[in-house]
Design a protein that fits this description.
seven-stranded mixed sheet, five-stranded mixed sheet, Aspartate Aminotransferase, domain 1, binds pyridoxal-5'-phosphate, alpha/beta, Aspartate Aminotransferase, domain 2
């Protein structure tokens, strides 16, 4: 078969396997039999040499991928009811763009304006995102440090790497080389910095991982919760006290703002006033403000209507940060793996990520408006992952993206309201009311994550497992306030804010009924 015929036939087989018939719903998880078949079809341990001895050829291999492996993969791109983790789907236009990326296999490494427009597309996508997220509302604030990453974890690594660079450099004698040049140990010795603290509230686990990667250390991440009832909220007094104590003790700081927190979707700051206060503190104490806005920052792109005013306000002021993490593969619904990173100055990124002395990698235009990606991020060679994001932004525009985000919020709020109003006998909405106010206020505080638990501890212990077992919809198991909890995160463009809310409500009600019947049967049997 010739190349074109092979590819056309292969895409047709892939589409036949991945298609979703309108009006039908697809299981969120593979069956046990499909998983078994897929595993049995792989080369077993010890069979590697046999498997490699003779290639099966492309046609048979496509059959193996489509018929054995594909059925054993999770359904989060084909189902709007996969509410696990914060796993987005992939918009059709993004999937089409991603196929183009593979078809033309670009390596977006060096800005070579005479040879490829890829870096220009990447830059355009980043500029569109800055506008979408309204990070440019203050003309004094620019984001010339910007790049695509593999996800929020990588963006958090960039954020802490830039923060480390800046807070230590601010304490080095004038004219010193960068921290990237000197290394953290040498630079800290020269700057009189004893340690670098990361001050946060319910920072995502990847923040601690990033702290380890950049040499700051997981143990340097300090939780400063506003209160026991609102552990996601950042205690600004506590931040000020930590900065003041640190200043006297040779401790530099990065303030990491969770926007929002992964279990509750709540924001560490309460809007512009909190962010202005953090900005002033950071300026006074030469600290760095990093916002982990993986999914929460998309609250800023919701429609400007009363329905979303509280969320937009809660995400206010985030543009006052020094650096920002954004996930693409979550709420933007572009394929894995896509993250975005913004910082004010591209010089900070260059100080960390510059490739020195590699003449063949130098672009004549590295001083121009578009830097070579390889000098501002982790990878040298990398995928053209900007194209699907660019395609979504061009295709949908701010209104289309806003409408998609609004559907997700409405679905999450519908589920939160159902838990409060229809399911209250068996389930409890988390976080517990605290100073959230009445039910309406709690529903209005819901972004895309709904945290809940069953009132009966026995049911609660395996609630997520019971949800997952049906494969009709999916929720994650997590823990909240020392007990198991169930997290429903709406992140797919496919979600139906009416039908899917009803499905979750009815599903939770049935699980509670079945649990009571099992308990009654067990009691009768005794
Ligand atoms: C998901 C998430 C991360 C990690 O993102 P990846 O894209 O999985 O690397 C980091 N921070 C927050 C707040 C998140 O929600």
């Amino acid at each position: 078969m010739d190349t074109e015929a092979f590819l056309t036939a292969s895409y047709a087989r892939i589409r036949a396997r991945a298609a979703v018939t309108p009006g039908t719903s697809v299981p969120t998880l593979p069956t046990a039999a499909q998983l078994t078949q897929a595993r049995a079809s792989l080369p077993g341990r010890g069979e590697e040499a046999t498997a490699l001895a003779q290639g099966r050829g492309p046609a048979a291999t496509v059959g193996h991928l489509v018929d054995d492996i594909a059925p054993a993969l999770a359904g989060h791109n084909r189902s709007g009811r996969y509410f696990g983790f914060v796993t987005g789907s992939c918009l059709p236009i993004a999937e089409a763009a991603d196929n183009l990326v593979s078809a033309l296999d670009q390596n977006v490494q060096v800005h070579l304006p005479g040879q490829s427009a890829a870096t220009d597309v990447e830059d355009a996508a980043l500029r569109l995102l800055i506008r979408l997220l309204r990070l440019d509302e203050d003309p004094a604030i620019t984001w010339e440090g910007r790049t695509f990453t593999t996800g929020a974890t990588a963006s958090n690594i960039l954020g802490l790497a830039c923060g480390r660079e800046a807070v230590v450099a601010a304490r080095l004698p004038a004219g010193s080389p960068s921290v990237g040049e000197l290394g953290l140990l040498g630079a800290c010795a020269a700057a009189g910095v004893r340690s670098i603290e990361v001050l946060t509230s319910l920072g995502h686990s990847s923040l601690a991982k990033a702290a380890a990667v950049v040499g700051v250390g997981r143990a340097s991440v300090r939780e400063l919760p506003r209160s026991a009832a609102e552990p996601w909220g950042l205690d600004l007094e506590g931040v000020e006290a930590a900065l003041a104590a640190g200043a006297a003790a040779g401790v530099a700081a990065v303030i990491a703002v969770s926007a929002g927190e992964v279990n509750t979707g709540r924001f560490a700051t309460r809007g512009g006033a909190d962010m202005r206060r953090l900005r002033a503190l950071a300026d006074r104490y030469r600290a760095w403000v990093h916002v982990d806005g993986a999914f929460g920052i998309f609250a800023r792109a919701l429609p400007d209507t009363p329905e979303f005013a509280a969320l937009r306000a809660a995400a206010g002021g985030l543009e006052l940060a020094d650096s920002i993490t954004v996930d693409g593969h979550k709420l933007l619904n572009v394929p894995y793996d896509t993250g975005i990173f913004f910082t004010r100055k591209s010089a900070t990124l260059h100080a960390v990520f510059q490739n020195p002395n590699a003449a063949y990698l130098a672009a004549p235009s590295d001083t121009a408006a578009i830097p070579s990606p390889l000098n501002i991020g982790i990878e040298n060679s990398r995928r053209f992952r900007a194209l699907p994001a660019y395609a979504v932004l061009v295709s949908e525009g701010a209104a289309g993206v806003g409408a998609m985000l609004a559907r997700g919020v409405r679905a999450a709020r519908g589920i939160a309201a159902a838990v409060l109003r229809d399911l209250a006998a068996d389930y409890e909405l988390l976080p517990a009311a605290a100073d959230d106010g009445d039910d309406d206020a709690r529903v209005a505080a819901t972004h895309v994550v709904v945290l809940l638990r069953a009132r009966d501890p026995g049911l609660n212990a395996d609630l997520a497992a019971r949800v997952q077992a049906g494969a009709e919809w999916y929720a994650s198991a997590t823990r909240w306030a020392g007990a198991p909890a169930c997290r429903v995160a709406v992140a797919s463009w496919r979600v139906d804010p009416v039908a899917d809310v009803a499905l979750v409500r009815d599903g939770l009600a049935r699980i509670a009924r079945e649990w009571r019947a099992e308990k009654d049967a067990a009691a009768a049997g005794n």
